[in-house]
Amino acid sequence: MKDIKWIYAMLVFLLSEAQSIKSGTNQSTSVNSNSSAAHFEKIHAAFNLGSEAILTCSNKTWKDMLFVTWNIERNSKSCRIGYIDNGQKEDSCEDGKSLQNTSSSQSYLHIPKFSKDDVGVYKCNHVYKGGNENVEFNVTITVPPRLSYWLETKDNKTVAVCKAEGGNPAANISWSHLGIRNASILEVEDPQGLFTVESRLELLEGMDTEHLNCSIRHPSYLEGQKTLALKPKKGYGPWLYILTVVVIIVFLAGVLFFSLKKLWRRCKLSESSPSKSPPTEDVEEVEPYASYVQRVNSIYNSSADLYT
């Protein structure tokens, strides 16, 4: 009985493939032949980096399914994941992807943690009793962009700049103010397949920028878009100059304070120390040589008289 079901499933599959080739279109098609329905569809799907990804190509339940296969092509590598109702399984990917079913027994392909390596084309062939469904998913990664916004002055003109950097797909930027001229948008793709979008808007002279906002739309935003209020980033205004002057004044005041403090200490030290005259040495008074000889001679004569 299982062999008959297998042969039947293969016949349905071959019939659907022939009808798809004959139709030669990428749009969704339905073909009826001997009460068997074949359906082909292309779908674009994008997932956030690191998120759980689920791909479903049929709403049929397991009890109606004969077999399901997923042919996956990514970065020049191909693999297959499949299941037949007799319990046979196939998995040449061996990277965590698996076939699972919902609480209502509907089959889906599960990717536990989506990464750049999972980007590619996923072709699902779901054969069930009475027909089959073929769905081709073009799967890409969704990367939220880094947002920045500022006002800058150039050639006496004020320019509002709103930037969404490193996102996938490319973000869409719009402005809330109508008094704008010479708007320009630049979109660049880097080698990693990420997009940077920059919108530059030249503002009218004297225009109030307090309520000038830019809105960024991107699939990674649950709310659909983010609105940013512009703040000065370049041409910093008078506050930068005031701050610079204050820093210089504080620095000079500090240098002057420490110099005066050092001078005051030196003066204080010189006032507290008593003045001392240079020390004098006690020098024994020496009689002149002639006086000395005379004294010796007188003493000698006195002694001679005593013995005479």
Describe this structure in words.
The protein has 308 residues and is an alpha+beta fold. The protein has three helices and 17 strands. A seven-stranded mixed β-sheet has the order 1-2-10-9-4-5-6, with helices on one face. Strands 11-12-15-14 form a four-stranded antiparallel β-sheet, with no helix packed on it. The protein has a three-stranded antiparallel β-sheet with strand order 3-8-7, with no helix packed on it. It starts with a helix and ends with a helix.
What is the assembly state of the chains in this entry?
single chain
Query: Unreliable stretches, pLDDT < 50, 5 or more residues?
Result: 1-9, 11-35
Order of helices and strands: HEEEEEEEEEEEEEEEEEHH
User: Radius of gyration from the CA trace?
Assistant: 49 Å
Annotation field: number of helices? 3
Write down the overall geometry: elongated
Largest sheet: 7 strands, mixed
* Helix content, binned percent: 10-25%
- Round the mean pLDDT to the nearest integer and report it: 76
Number of strands: 17
**What is the straight-line distance between the termini?**
179 Å
Strand content: 35-45%
Strand order, sheet with most strands: 1-2-10-9-4-5-6
The helix/strand class is alpha+beta
